[in-house]
Structure formats: C-alpha cells, structure tokens
C-alpha cells in the first residue's frame, strides 16, 4: 500500500531525523523542501538565487516555488512510492496546493504526524545540529554523535557541515514563522481525522516507535 504522510513540527522538532528512519525501515522517500531548496542554492539555479536570502533570514520562500518543487519530485518518483512530506506544507496555501497535487496524481494523504516539542529545547537542538558533508546524515553535538568520533555512521565520511540558518537569531524567526503560518494549518487536517500526535521530546528511538505505531 502506498502511504502519503506529513511530518509536522517546528524547526528542530526532529522531522528530518525521523524521515531518515522511515526511509531506512519502511522504504519510504523523504520529500524535504528545505533540502531541495538548499540543493538549488548550492547549484546556483534561478530558484536557488531567489531563495537564498529568504532562507538566510529564516523567512518563507514563496508558495509557488515550493509547491512546484514538490510536484516535480512526485512526478520523478512515480505512483508506487510511499512519501514523507518534511517541512511542507508550511502555509494554508501550500496545504491547498498539496491536496491538488496529490489528487492529480491519484494519491491521498493518510496521516499528518505532529511532533510535539517544547520550544525552549529547540534552540539547543538546532544550534547543536550538524550533518555529514558527503551523504547528509544528521547528527547533534550532544544527542546524536557519530559512533566513531569524526566519522559518519552512514558513509564513513570525515567532513561535517552546519547550516548557515542554524543560528539562534534566525531560529527565533523560523519559530515565529511556524507559529504564525504553519501551526494554523493543523485544524484543516484535524477536521479530516488524520492527525496523529507524538511526543517529540522523547529519545529518537521512542519517537520512531510511536510514529511507526501510527502508520501500522
Ligand atoms: P527538523 O528536521 O525538524 O528541523 P532535525 O531532525 O534536523 O529537525 O533535528 C534537529 C536536531 O535535533 C538534530 O541535530 C537531531 O540530531 C536532534 N534530534 C532530533 N530528534 C531528537 C530527539 N528526539 N532527541 C534529541 N535530539 C534530537
Ligand atoms: P527546513 O530545512 O525545513 O528547516 O527549511 C529551511 C528553510 O527553507 C526555511 O526556513 C525556509 O526559508 C525554506 N523553506 C523550506 N521549506 C519551505 C516551505 N514549505 N515553504 C516556504 N519556505 C520553505
């Protein structure tokens, strides 16, 4: 059965971490608009050039750009792949666009999983975040260190990087954007009875187990 799920939660809630686990354990594919935009910035595409300053400021890139990226990526995947939307939708307009994008491809949303977190912990999570420069595997200075120091668990790489927007000031803007524009889309999904809530403050393995219990 093909699943279509959204992981919803503020920056640092653990969406990317959990999406990676679902990729490994369930064969699902993560669709992260943040990753797509960072790839566009790196490649210097027109979208990347447009998005860079907005991302550095912690504000939201236009609905048209991100919905366009999602539609393209779904077309590349074809119809049989189960997908995890990570960091999308972030506004009511994106939620509407996603409904249309899915319907046009014979898909429908199965679950919206809200990672509930304590906002005070998020700055700490985000400022300690780093990832493998080669394969992108995610780590944290205190909560998820590589098993062998300075060596990526996934690919053995030795180079790591930090995101330019993972600083305290930008994080505050990103959280304010989440509160103002993203949290208000939850009721749309609540009305459809597809929201599952998970304690995102639990250890990574427990969060993973709670999500997989919802997916069945
Ligand atoms: P998001 O994709 O929601 O922005 P990430 O998955 O990148 O968040 O997680 C942010 C940081 O917090 C990462 O460094 C990650 O290793 C760490 N992290 C994720 N989930 C947990 C957790 N349940 N407990 C402690 N640290 C976590
Ligand atoms: P993320 O990797 O999800 O933390 O996203 C990083 C940044 O990319 C955000 O702060 C936004 O500037 C931009 N971004 C990612 N996804 C979206 C989206 N769905 N809508 C608007 N902007 C986005």
The total of beta strands comes to 8
Give the strand order, joined by hyphens, for the main sheet: 2-3-1-4-8
Number of helices: 9
Radius of gyration: 17 Å
- The CA-CA distance between the termini, in Å, is 11 Å
What small molecules does the structure contain?
Answer: adenosine-5'-diphosphate, adenosine monophosphate
Which class do the helix and strand fractions yield? alpha/beta
Bulk shape: globular
Helical fraction: 40-55%
Main beta sheet = 5 strands, parallel
Query: Strand percentage, roughly?
Result: 15-25%
Oligomer: single chain
Question: Could you spell the SSE succession in H and E letters?
Answer: EHEHHHEHEHEEEHHEH
Question: Could you tell me the mean pLDDT?
Answer: 97
Low-confidence stretches: none
List keywords for this structure.
five-stranded parallel sheet, 216 residues, binds adenosine monophosphate, binds adenosine-5'-diphosphate, alpha/beta
Structural overview:
- With 216 residues, the chain is of the alpha/beta class.
- It contains 9 helices and 8 strands.
- The longest helix is centred in the N-terminal third of the chain and has 15 residues, at 63-77.
- It is globular and about 45 Å long.
- It binds adenosine-5'-diphosphate (ADP) and adenosine monophosphate.
- Residues 11, 33-34, 37, 54-55, 58-61, 66, 87-88, 90, 94, 165, 174 line the site of adenosine monophosphate.
């Amino acid at each position: 059965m093909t699943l279509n799920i959204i992981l919803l939660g503020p920056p640092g809630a653990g969406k990317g971490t959990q999406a990676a686990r679902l990729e490994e354990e369930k064969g699902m594919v993560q669709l992260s608009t943040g990753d797509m935009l960072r790839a566009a910035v790196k490649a210097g595409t027109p979208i990347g050039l447009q998005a860079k300053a907005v991302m550095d400021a912690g504000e939201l890139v236009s609905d048209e750009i991100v919905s366009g990226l999602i539609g393209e990526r779904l077309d590349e995947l074809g119809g049989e792949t189960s997908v995890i939307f990570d960091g999308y939708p972030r506004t009511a307009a994106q939620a509407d666009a996603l409904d249309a994008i899915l319907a046009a491809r014979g898909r429908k949303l199965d679950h919206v999983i809200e990672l509930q977190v304590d906002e005070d912990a998020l700055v700490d999570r985000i400022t300690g975040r780093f990832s493998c420069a080669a394969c992108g595997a995610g780590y944290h200075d205190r909560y998820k260190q590589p098993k062998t120091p300075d060596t990526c668990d996934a690919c053995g790489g030795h180079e790591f990087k930090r995101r330019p927007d993972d600083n305290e000031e930008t994080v505050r803007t990103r959280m304010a954007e989440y509160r103002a524009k993203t949290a208000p889309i939850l009721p749309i999904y609540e009305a459809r009875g597809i929201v599952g809530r998970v304690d995102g403050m639990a250890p990574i393995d427990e969060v993973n187990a709670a999500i997989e219990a919802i997916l069945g």
